[in-house]
């Protein structure tokens, strides 16, 4: 018998993978050596279906996006109502999830998520991003991220609870906080998710984010991933849109021109409270073939 | 302003979390110290929607389960057909995923996934597992797993490509290969996914898996997770069912009685080829509130 | 060869079908004789997916309900981007719909949709309504409705564009307009969908609807269906809820106690403009086994 | 207050609506006059979700297509398990449906479903069929069909239970049975769904269907709809494909060149047993904006 292995465990061709190429084994080992206490924090917000709860409020999300839906195809209620157990007495709960990750969950963007003109990152043809998935630069190319996480807690640096909606973080401010090494994951805290707890309307009134200069500064330092607790890395105006021109758009600077993957909608409050500047950052998107992104649960190992 | 933080970064109450309680900071630090080369392998099979590809064959799965569906709500084809870019010229691809993880993808089971009688693991009432999710023992309680992975490559140990469908791995065989420490992730290779490449019909003709004794042996060694490349940890008969009685059912032994989380449908061929007995195992399920499981991309850091 | 026919074309057992039993062949023939001009009007609002359009506004719906999602699994954009045609040159577009009909689309309620206590309509056990569908009183029992439609255009009768949010239509008002015969479909126009065009917020500020007395009056006249252009047949308070007590709840009066099927969220503006008091009403819900309702496109044949 | 009505009750521009233009008020009135007994038959197969039933067999469908999924977001089991009723004691069941209609349910094809070259029916640009729906020739253009149904019960005419998989119905055979008038719905019975009850494998081994000549003959007689109990109007080869060349493809002849809407996967056994050559045919697809088709429950009024 001769197997032609699928090699599903190997990551894809390098030229589709952007600055994740920076995640060499040396970078990985170096990152792991940074663990101090062994405490593990989740940086993800919950995925709470529109149908999974009768509660009137829900998780921070961009207005108008299709919210996650979570269904049980069999559950304990069915047995309470008299459903027969399986086989000798086994009871099972099974579910299904419908998720559009961008704007609704903690997620990672694939390199095929945004572009301008006819080419994706690294010249891949945008015409390969079709209804049955992207055969170039899909999220399945990422594999996993294991790297040093570097926390830029901007509001703490400024003595604020959270940044204001109109604030665009300048490169100088990042520079005051820390200097990334190649392969680092830059974790940017704006504190904006705290606003949701006061008022969804205020959360939707705009969002603070990186300035174009800050994006260029991070790319110049060869970070592998930029990971933020806001919804779009850059800021949003009151209509919920990025309004930089094409040269200054944060997605185009990072994702499109430099192949830097983006993580958005993180929950960073516990990590911020720990005030740990460096930690091990691990994230592994679902291997969705041709996906434009994936919901994820990033971990910080302190 | 007084925040009442959501504490979404903290893991849930201990008594819902089973042997993951074994994942103390010491276990985490000890696991990280086991990394040697820094190579990172994905242990996940791809998620390939029934609608994401015109190909006649697809990814190993249990017959009759609802397969993942992956849709693009906007893609490069739309721009090729004349869709207007966003704003100053930004183009975007966006997608949605429908997934029932059990039996169709590499996934982790929540403690609410299986039980007998009226109680889940640790006496939680099964009646709390309802249509809007499980308010006890849901997958969101897991947070993340960072632990030493211990590979039990059973077919390699026996000089086989893969185990046969009717084989139930005895405890003695595991014992010959390695002895887990508390908190370890026991990674069991059966090689069964290789059979899919020969024939889906053969893949569905039954599956090899752990014997009840092997399950008890692993639980007695306080492993935190049992992770397998077959579909159900235990074996399956030709009708695709586990046929142990209640005392010997692998899900009941591990998940229900000992709170050991299960990972199923791994892709272990590259890891097996590396022949590394120990490595760092990292997995973080999606934070689906009340979920019975989550698709995951586990990583092995060598 | 002996067939055991599925009899999918036959309607289910009578006792699950409520007052649709009133739709005897005589009622059907009598209804058809009422057609005058042969003009056919659709009484349905469009199903416009959250993802099917970039437009900022959408179709009237109850706030917080999961909106329909519509995806193309292959479309003309893919061919514009270079996808190969099928076979000798055939091109195909294919799609998928995710729909939760109650509160989001023009739909019919099944008899299993609402109840109080432990019994559905006609004493069927509510415990038979489970995660895998209702084995009693599901929407597949309806088959089809062909009956005389009787328009109660209440705002026109009162000289208004639409009723006000707090108005509950008294039985006397219906009585002034028309008197139903057994089997008739009572079509109640409130005009409330017009409010959506002014302001979704106003649409959500409450809704006019039938009073309990009006519900009892319709049931006493043996109508087969009550069909309305509001969202819940009865009125809604500013929090979007029906607030009658159990004795007076419109769903309980009509659906639960009398087995009268309900159609909600109709679009009646063209029918209203025609000012035809009687017409042929035809509606056929999808044959969803165990469904709590179905999106429909009711037709009025004038 | 000035309303700009949505006119959702009006059908779309004529040139998108194909031969449904034949459904003039005279045709409708003439059809209604054909009712004799007032008996109403459903011509739909049930929609039975992959997850709605534990049963091993299901409803006839094309192999490999994504099957319907039906979920309850709240049900009687939840109340049995202790869920609190709504308000004063109201209990509610609510559900969601995921459906890809082509190949899985009784459905109607939109004119945008198939084409060759760059143009849809009547010269509409195929590039307007995009990920967010078809802005030309979508299923919402149909409105409703009320017409004379003309049954071509081919196996009965030949003294067979059902046609054989390789049989392509010649025009002459249709001609022997009946001659359509403009606007008629030609209902073609092959009996093939009966084969499903013997064996899904046999159902998938090919399908009988119309010959190209028969398609041309029907188009020449100005039928408004061709409605069949097979899956593709034309026949299918053992690989489940239509294998006529472009000139003879049934979808291209009827849908693309003549704008004749197609209904597929009907259940005609009860109608066939009634042996009624003529009846009133009514069908109203869901008003899915830009949809490529819709699941439907067609009615035959005898």
From TrEMBL, chains A, B, C, D:
The keyword Zinc does not apply. It holds the Pfam family Cyclase. Keywords: Hydrolase. Its EC number is 3.5.-.-. The keyword Magnesium does not apply. GO terms for molecular function: hydrolase activity. PANTHER family: CYCLASE, PTHR34861. This is Cyclase family protein. It comes from Nonomuraea purpurea.
